[in-house]
């Protein structure tokens, strides 16, 4: 019985790639140094999978930024502003597309389906000259082969690539991205031909958009594309992989009828209904890659349940045509449980990171072939039983409080217009008030102090002193820049979710459970294993300290319940919405304590609201109902004069704008600049928004510093569709990942732009 891994984490067990990338970007190392680190990591990954007995090992899943950008490079689809003139695309052009450079902005970045991973959105139009411009897929296949490892080269499928793209600026709205399919397929044919010549016998084409609600013409594009590729694919075994959700019946029918395709991969963890489709009808003689090991979460597989499922499928597709697989790429999990020193043995026994999931896949494949590891299966059963019966998982008081939420929609008593009037009387803010989103740059020294405090090498007194000095520096800088509503800069926080999780019950924390979010940015998601509550105040001390340093309003900074949920590894033994309500009650306690502590502006981030939206439209309403309700629970008890902000970043919001309005926040700051101000089109189309709103005026994920004139131009575009009395001026997101040499001039230009527009508005009266 064969085994397969869809994809694998690329950062390395100790984030080796992250540090190599940042060293290269900072000019401290060469391209050769970066490529050496990358090659060593790839070699270790392939060796690990090979030694575990994996038959179908992926290659070309190792990206320096993301796999969609790799595909853009492969196709030579570089927007003209980056000055690409042909030939093999180098790292300078590649990273300019991802991060921008001194003269041009980066391409748009958005979430990869409903994950916290991001990709760079291709910008396409009728004038794009596609060419085979990156030979990475072939080079990595050859690299593995030279090491004695036969791999399955992985490509983003051609139709998914186009459907995940956007029309470039200036391209007619009516332009159909799928009209580019013939040009794109011409390059795919070159790549596939070269892979065949190099000796590849299998190829994996990822077509995850098949799990979405697709119109008929989009499904027809799959049929046409694979018919066009059929002769080129001849002689290869071709796996088309889907993941993240159930595949709709019509899409399943289209997929399993594709010409030239040998095998089909399905997510059978999140796509439980797909199992029924497979059992009812699966094409004879084709391979089924059954994704029974969860690639999105870190809980140990239920071997007994998975084996039962696999045995049922064996009866449908035949013993020699069933392959045990992960549900999706393991990119979305932490790397290796072996590196964990912070987790206790009980919780550790409940978990499986990427390295352990490779073992799980192979253990299931062997068991299915009659070579069951009885000791491993017994240990698995014991761990599952321990988790079910552990008293640390259940808190009766929390469950009762969450159950009591039913029957109320938890809205504030006064409407937003009246609240804004009351808040303005108290805050006395100018037109177009300026603020930032929360975090300020985290220096090497700041990280050192925090790290040493956690290691008990620095006393609490010295730690508080260091944090106080950093907060004072941030407050003084904001006053110097003349920002209207200040933040304390979050020096005490390494990560916005980890910080809160460490202070809430029901959470566990890893030492090295890093997961890539985008580029070199890694997060360490907490593990929610039990019922959630707040034993004591979490942020009041720091926020009150910061407020005492200034007469200007100081925002209290909290992460909202849906964001904590979606950016954690969530328990899978109860519905997600029940866990979210528990978190909401904990944040509600904190909001009310901040208000009592004299904080009059409180930001409750809803950054991950859109990210958690189910991929199928039929499931949207239920999710949005409990997600928005959870936000309202957090602040339903505050006074009218307390201003509640929320923040959302890097996603497509237009289709959920009414749910965003229903959150009933007083002010929302929202990503806008990197997506070509797509958000503003909602308001151009007539959506009325009465609360405060701050569409981001510059992209913080790029080192580029926008000019005052550029920011002023953005603000004027906003004023064309939004009332001046509700518009705020702010960056797209927090500033933690930037340097002060970038932040100071960018914020100065932002404030100067706001003042310029204010004076223009005043003189126009």
TrEMBL record:
Pathway the protein acts in: Amino-acid biosynthesis; L-methionine biosynthesis via de novo pathway; L-methionine from L-homocysteine (MetE route): step 1/1
Ligand binding (Zn(2+) 2): 658, 662
Coiled coil residues, start to end: none
UniProt xrefs under InterPro entries: Cbl-indep_Met_Synth_N (IPR013215), Cobalamin-indep_Met_synthase (IPR006276), Met_Synth_C/arc (IPR002629), UROD/MetE-like_sf (IPR038071)
Active site (record annotation): 701
Domain Cobalamin-independent methionine synthase MetE C-terminal/archaeal: 432-755
Cofactor: Zn(2+)
Domain Cobalamin-independent methionine synthase MetE N-terminal: 3-316
Catalytic reaction annotation: 5-methyltetrahydropteroyltri-L-glutamate + L-homocysteine = tetrahydropteroyltri-L-glutamate + L-methionine
Record keyword Transferase present: yes
The organism's place on the tree of life at top rank: Eukaryota
Keyword terms, alphabetized: Amino-acid biosynthesis, Metal-binding, Methionine biosynthesis, Methyltransferase, Transferase, Zinc
Annotated positions binding Zn(2+) 1: 647, 649, 671, 733
GO annotation, biological process: methylation
Enzyme Commission (EC) number: 2.1.1.14
Pfam families given in the database record: Meth_synt_1, Meth_synt_2
Similarity comment text for this entry: Belongs to the vitamin-B12 independent methionine synthase family.
Function of the molecule: Catalyzes the transfer of a methyl group from 5-methyltetrahydrofolate to homocysteine resulting in methionine formation.
Name listed for the protein in its UniProt record: 5-methyltetrahydropteroyltriglutamate--homocysteine S-methyltransferase
